[in-house]
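Intended use. Records like the one below are meant for learning the mapping from a protein sequence to its folded structure. Do not use them to infer anything beyond what is encoded.
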Amino acid sequence: MSDQEFDRDDHFNVQDDNDPTSQGEDDQFRSDGERVNSMVPASDMLPERIYLLPIHNRPFFPAQVQPLVINRERWEETMRRVGNTPHQTVGVAYVGEQGIDSLDSEGFPTIGTAVKVHKMKGEDQQIQFIARGVQRFKIQRWLSSTPPYLVEVSYPKEPVDAENEETRAYAMAIINGIKELLPINPLYGEELKHYLNRFSPHEPGPLTDFAAAITSAKGPELQDVLSTLDVAERMQKVLPLLRKEIDVAQLQSEISEQVNAQMQERQREFFLREQLKVIQRELGISKDDRENDVDTFRARLESLVVPERVQSRIDDELDKLSVLETGSPEYGTTRNYLDWLTSLPWGVTSPDQLDLNHARQVLDRDHDGLKDVKERIVEFLAEGSFKGDVGGSILLLVGPPGVGKTSVGRSIAEALGRQFYRFSVGGMRDEAEIKGHRRTYVGAMPGKLVQSFKEVEVENPVIMLDEIDKLGQSFQGDPASALLEVLDPEQNVDFLDHYLDVRMDLSKVLFVCTANTLDSIPSALLDRMEQIRLSGYIAEEKLAIAKHHLWPKLLKRDNLPKKRIQLSDAALKQVIEGYAREAGVRQLEKQLHRIVRKAAVKLLEDDVETVKVSVKNLEEFLGAPIFRKEKVLKGEGVVTGLAWTAMGGATLPIEAGKVHSLDRGFKLTGKLGDVMQESANIAYSYTLGHLQEYGADSDFFDSAFVHLHVPEGATPKDGPSAGVSMTTALLSLARHQAIDRPLAMTGELTLTGQVLPVGGIREKVIAARRSDIFEVILPEANRRDYEELPDYLREGMTVHFANRYRDVAKVVFK
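Structure written out for the chain above:
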C-alpha cells in the first residue's frame, strides 16, 4: 500500500477480495457491514510470513470476528505493510499487561491467531478495523524483533477424533452449557442462538474456541486454551470455564430477582400505609401531617420561656399553618420558619462556674506559658463574679499563627462551664451569613449566630469568631459592618436576624474573636473589643509545650507506647532551634509528627523494641536543619534593628554604604513601604544636620552618594519602628566606626531627635534573645511595656531606654 492510498478523511483503502458484505445468507455481517463479536469458521490460504500485532485485554480466537482499535502512531507502518500484502493477514498475539516500550520477542507467546483485515480506517490517533480470525499460528523464527514485528510461522494441525465417544460427550456438554447460559445472560441473545446452530459435535475445534471466547475468563487462562492444540485437551480446559460463567450468571440473576422482590415489597408497604392513613383519618383515630406539625411545635414551646413578642409571632404562624394545604409551597415555607423559631433556646441558660481556682487549673492544664494571657482571663472572670455574669463581653485574641488562640477560647468556655461554638469568618463576603436571608428568597436560612443557638441549645454560650481580620467585602454586602450590631453591647440586646424577623438577646453571649493582626480590622469594629495579645513562645516555652502536650498527643493518636519512642530533651531543643523557629508551635508539631512516623517505620522494619532519638541521629529523622544559627551582621554602617510581623518578632539588619564621592545622593532598597521610606528620609535629614554634634565630619555627606539597604529585599516591610536603627547606620558610616558588640534597637525618630514609642516589645525582645542578642535599646515610653514582661524574658537582658537620639548615640558609640 503506497502513501497515496490514504485519502483526505484518513481512511485506509485496503483491497479486500473477501469483503464480508458480498457474502451470502450465512455471512456474519449485516448489510451495512457492522456486525461484530461474532464467530465463523474460516480457512484460507495463509502466508508463511506475517506481521504481528500485540493485544492486551484477552486473546483472539480463530473464527472470531470483532473490531480492533490500535494506536495509530505506533502501528501505522505495520498496517500499511499488511495492506500491501495480497493476503492482508496479520498475526494477533496476547501479551498481557506488558508495556509496549519494554516488549521484546520473549514477551510474545508462541501461539497466536492469524486474522484477515477488513474495513480498515484511521481516525484521529487510532486505527480501526474488523478482524476475522482464521487459524492458529506458531512462531518459528523472528525476522524483525522491533516494530513492525515480522515472523516466520507455521500453522499447526489440531489433532481431533470427532467420532470418539469422549470427544462427542465433551462437545455435547459444551453445547448444553452454552444453551444453559443463553436464557440467564441476555447479553448473548439471538446472535449466539444463530451461531450455535452452525456448530455441531462433529466440529469440536471451532465449537470449543467459540465457547472459550464467550466466557469472561482472564487473559492468561484463555491464552492457555488458545495454546492447547489437542482439541480433546482443549475441551477439558474450556468446560470448567463455561461452568464458572454459568454459575456467575445464575448468581447475578438471583441478585436481580431479590432486588426486584424487595422493590415490589416496599411499593406494596407504601400503598398499604397510605390506605391505613386514610382509613384512620376517616375513623378519627389519627391526625394528618398538618395537625402533627402543629402539635410538635406547641410541645417544643412548653419547656421554653418565650418573650411575648416572639410568642405572638409564633401563634400567628401556627394559625396560618393550620389552614394551609400541606402540598402548597407556602406550607413548606411556614413550616420551616416555625421549625427554626421553636428550635431556639428561648430563656434557657447554663449556670456560670466562676471559681477562679478551677479556671486556673483548666488554663494551666491546657496551656504552658502565656502567663500574662491567663492572668488577664482570670481578671476577666473575677470581674464577672461580682457582676454575676460575664455576658456581653467581646474578647479579641491577637497573635501569630499557631500560638493557641482557638484553644484558649475553648479553655475559657470549659473554665466557665459554658457551651462552645466556633465558626470562621475568614473570607466571608456575604452579610447574610451573619444576619440571615430574608424569607422571600428560595432556600433562605438564618445567619450563623441563630444556627449556633440551635446547636448549643442555650442562650449564653461562648461563640468564637475565628480569623476576624480576614473578613471579605463584595457586592453582596459588608460582613464587618454587619458584625457591628452583633458585637456592640448596646445594640445586641435586640439583634434582628433577617430570616427570623424577631428580636433576639445576644447580651448573654461571651464572644471570643481571633486575629493575626489588627491592621485589617475596621476601627469601628476593633473599638468594641477587649484585646488580649498572644505574642508567641520562646524556646523554653516551646520545650514545655512539646513535652507536656504535643509529644504525648502524637503518641496517643498513633497508639504508640511512650517507652517505645524515646526523645531526649537535647534533641527536642535542637528540633525547636533548627527546624521550628516560628512564633507558634504548629511547625514544631509537624516536625515531631515526622519523627513519630519514621520511628514507627523503624519499629516495624527493624523489629526493635525501642527507638531512641538524640541529637546525634536527629538528622536521620528530619534531614538537615532548616535554620542555622543567625549571624549578626557587623561592620561600618551595619545595625541590627528589631521588627514586629504577623508571624512574630524578627531581627532586621540595616546596612548603609558609601557608593562614590562624585556627588551627593541617597538611595533606598529593600522593598520598603511608605512608612519605612519616610523613616529613612527623616533619618538621613537628622543625621545630615547633626554630624558635628556626634563626632563625624560635617561635610561627609556633601560629596557622598549613600545607599541604605534592608536585606531580604524580596520580603515587603513596613512599620514605624526603624528610624533609630537607620539613623545609627548612617552615623556609623559617617564616623567610620562599626558597632563592636551584639546590640539591637528599635524606635521611631522625629526630625528634632525625639525617640517615639513602638509596639510589639515582647515579640522584639523574644527575637533578640533568639539571635543571642542580650543588649537592646528601647524608647523610654516603652519602659512600662518592658517591665510588664515575664521575668524569664528579662533575665540576662541589658536594656537601655532613650528619650532622644543622643541617648542612643551614647550607648552605641560610647
